[in-house]
Amino acid sequence: RNLEPVTQLYVSVDASTKESLKRIDRPLFKDFWQRFLDSLKALSEKQQRTVYRLTLVKAWNVDELRAYADLVSLGKPDFIEVKGVTYCGESSASSLTMANVPWHEEVVRFVQELVELIPDYEIACEHEHSNCLLIAHKKFKVDGEWCTWINYERFQELVREHERSGGSKTFTAADYTARTPHWALFGSSQRGFDPLDVRYQRKSKAKDISGC
């Protein structure tokens, strides 16, 4: 609650119900659910950029749309980043398999259904090769254009002004936004791939069994 201004504050939302969060995260504290809810409430009080990070695990937490929407109304994040889980191999600490990795189109469908339940938000960006989409609050859509990127130089200026004022001069997420490039927008033909980068396609005849 007393955190100094940061560029962007994340909270991982690995599940939307007490039961599924316990199964996925295997928490150490008995009061884990209340701690989680308190974290979301505290997030709603921050003035700088706040983000929910939702990791979708197929067959584990992709059917809890209404519960996710309720958590959004609790923390009121500026952004919601939704990503399919990344499988990192077998582990005694996890029962995840490749079957739990959602296909990108499944992530897209989940996000489309979720925004129907949270009217203050829209799908803003897509990063297909990361199996990820960004939902943004409509206040970041200025004159019909998304401004979801960060103006880091402006943020540093605002922090210096905040410090010189002894903390009395505050600022909000809207004060250091930058326009989103067209290739990062949801619905663009690039689907989040920067055209200035070089993309290498794997030349393998092996069957692709990934969900990404």
Automatic annotation (TrEMBL):
In the record, what lineage is assigned to the organism producing the protein?
Eukaryota, Metazoa, Chordata, Craniata, Vertebrata
Name this polypeptide is given? tRNA wybutosine-synthesizing protein 1-like protein
Entry keyword annotation includes Cell cycle: no
* Location of the tRNA wybutosine-synthesis domain: 75-137
User: Could you tell me the keywords of this UniProt record?
Assistant: 4Fe-4S, Iron, Iron-sulfur, Lyase, Metal-binding, tRNA processing
- Record carries keyword Lyase: yes
What PANTHER family does UniProt report for this protein, alphabetically? Answer: S-ADENOSYL-L-METHIONINE-DEPENDENT TRNA 4-DEMETHYLWYOSINE SYNTHASE (PTHR13930), S-ADENOSYL-L-METHIONINE-DEPENDENT TRNA 4-DEMETHYLWYOSINE SYNTHASE TYW1-RELATED (PTHR13930:SF0)
Q: Pfam families recorded for this chain?
A: Wyosine_form
* GO-annotated biological processes: wybutosine biosynthetic process
Gene3D superfamilies in alphabetical order: Aldolase class I
Tell me the cofactors it needs.
Answer: [4Fe-4S] cluster
